[in-house]
Write a structure and sequence with these properties.
262 residues, single chain, 10% strand
Length: 262
């Protein structure tokens, strides 16, 4: 599960409170506003304002989900702009690190960086978006697969880290995309045994594979990647950075393509 989605309930409650506060403030402002063309209405106290707003909401409950959706959209837009500003400043460090596998046209003007965790169900759901983008626009896009194993409570000994190390080891045998597709398309719960089975199915040199997985520089790369992402403000998966602009979350193929085409 994405780190971001765990906050959804809290955000919804906060937005609801914000909406109520705005309604109360609007009602108070309306009452206090001078009316030159009409007789001035008697002042209403705070209790009466609360009752009026409560009554309106009870009579029109559909406004709450509508208002929450609008506020959430605005909040996400502000967050995306803030993330993009930070990511743009560190774009050179993000797009090239020497470890992340790359697909598509390595000389393309547009670079798409995807931060993902192999145990994230939202990343698996978004996997077909990457496949389609490379199939339809692979000649115009340089696609970077950024290992972001943040769902491990066990830290570097967890399954997410294990799978990420395996992905880099597979890349060193020119089999990254095949390995990546096997992991992302698999419906079973991911564990270390399944990760090894995928490598064997691809007929990789297993001695070299295990040796590459144990490269200490890989864990250093993970640490640097996670530290930089958190400094920018990236915390959940999947997150895309497209020529410095951030798209946080699995928003679908059209949203990714829209930024690519910009």
């Amino acid at each position: 599960m994405s780190v971001r989605n765990g906050k959804q309930g809290f955000v919804t409650l906060s937005l609801t409170i914000a909406i109520l506060a705005l309604l109360l403030a609007g009602a108070a402002l309306y009452i206090a506003w001078p009316k030159t063309a009409e007789p001035v209405a008697p002042a209403m106290d705070e209790r009466q304002i609360h009752q009026m707003v409560r009554g309106y909401i009870l009579e029109n409950p559909e406004i709450l989900p509508q208002a929450i959706a609008v506020l959430r959209q605005r909040e996400e837009m502000v967050q995306q702009n803030q993330l993009s500003a930070m990511a743009s400043d560190r774009w050179d460090d993000i797009k090239t690190d020497g470890f992340s596998p790359v697909a598509g046209n390595t000389d393309a003007a547009v670079t798409v960086v995807e931060y993902y965790d192999y145990r994230c169900p939202y990343c698996r759901r978004a996997h077909p978006d990457m496949v389609r983008l490379l199939a339809e626009h692979g000649d115009k896009v340089r696609y970077v697969f950024k290992q972001f194993p943040v769902l491990d409570s066990e830290g570097p000994n967890g399954v997410s880290h294990f799978a990420a190390r395996a992905a880099i080891a597979a890349d060193r045998q020119n089999s990254f995309l095949a390995f990546h597709d096997k992991v992302m398309s698999d419906d079973a719960r991911l564990d270390k045994a399944r990760v090894i089975s995928f490598a064997k199915e691809l007929d990789l040199d297993m001695d070299r594979f295990h040796k590459d997985m144990d490269d200490p520089e890989i864990n250093q790369y993970f640490g640097e990647t996670i530290a930089l992402a958190r400094m920018i403000g990236i915390s959940g998966t999947p997150t895309y950075v497209i020529n410095g602009k951030v798209l946080a979350g699995a928003h679908g193929y059209d949203a990714i393509l829209s930024l690519v085409q910009e």
